[in-house]
Amino acid sequence: MKLLFDNASQLVTCAGAPRARRGEEARQMEVLTDAALVTKGERILAVGPRDALRAAHPDAQPIDCGGRVLMPGLVDSHTHGIFGKPRHEEQELRAAGVGYMEIAKRGGGIHSSVRDLRARSEDELLALALPRLRRLMAHGTTTLEVKSGYGLTLEDELKSLRVIRRLQRALPIRLVPTFLGAHEIPLEYRAAPRTRDEYIALLVDEMLPRVAAEGLAVFGLQLKLHADELETAGAAELAAEIGAVSADHLAAVSDLGIKALAASKTVATLLPGTMLFLGRPRQAPARALLDAGAAVALASDFNPGTSPTVNFPLVLTLAVSQLHLSVSEAILAATVNGAAAVGLAADTGQLSAGYSADLALFDIEDVRELPYWYGDHRCHATWVRGAPALLTS
Question: Which residues, at least 6 apart from 287, have a Cβ–Cβ distance to it below 8 Å?
């Protein structure tokens, strides 16, 4: 069946490659007026002038956009959505001056989430994750990367990844599963008789083969890195060297790391909500990355300890106000570049003929309002692969 999306105040296509070639001016998002979009099944069939598409597709079912903004569904390329209890007590500790590493030494941080997840069944984790991911969807996200990484044993990592597979079957959204068994060295491998090297051997020799055999992950098999989040460690340079699809965080990336990313195909994924929530004064150097020629994506980093936000448009607000991106740069970072950060730049993240019909309709008249109304809920409806995924009454 064909659908004709009509009467949008603006149709924001984000069409084009994830970034311009080095030396070219930064690409601007394409904003069309008096335009319409036609889908057929799971794919976008045509984008163009409203009158022409109406005449060319008289058999298409009309969808009245009601003077709202139609754009690609948001691509959230970095989340930790499989966890048990929230870690709200840590926020209060940070407010009292207790540092990130000290909280970890007291038994908090990632290890707190590890203990909690290990004690829960697959069904419990699924029941907790479903409403959380629905809240993420409600703000206009149509593609969502979801990591394991709070299990850190073979069975608990497999349990987490199986939950992601069940979520994909239960939710009308595209999920990209990531195996993050190397999220942290578990406490039981930090002191004799077990060692860090033994845990790494477990990852390589047992976990990865099982994850691959069961087809439970896209990444962890392909490469994504948590890189230079709080301290400079040369991780961005490593990501570029090994051809990682993305290097994420980068608040402490070095000048050499910026140059390495700019010269590579690795996407620099920035997570401004994390640094805001941690109360850190330093955000990732977005302008330096863009000016050097790197492809920059944005993501929520939704997780129980350092970024418990489900509101991706709020991340766009932070990108403009804290990272000093233009609205165009922020929108591209949350759509086509986000798609590149999960290896899907040829399939989603833009409104172009042949692409997946992943659409978001926002209750605004101008796309520049999306980061302007910060913290507000403006998503009216979404479609994933051409099928309705969300409709706000």
Answer: 323, 324, 325
Let me know whether 157 and 22 are in one domain.
no
pLDDT in tens, 322-360: 999 999 999 999 999 999 999 999 999 999 999 999 999
pLDDT tens figures, 217-264: 999 999 999 999 999 999 999 999 999 999 999 999 999 999 999 999
Dihedral of alpha carbons 336, 338, 340, 342, sign: negative
Statement to judge: residues 87 and 214 lie in one domain: yes
Crossing angle of helices 154-170 and 122-138, in 10° steps, is 50
Cα angle: 164, vertex 230, 304; to 5 degrees: 35
| 299 φ, ψ (degrees, to nearest 5) | -150, 165
User: Is residue 95 domain-shared with residue 173, that is, in the same domain?
Assistant: yes
**Cα 310 to Cα 135, 192, 300, 351, distances in angstroms:** 6, 40, 7, 24
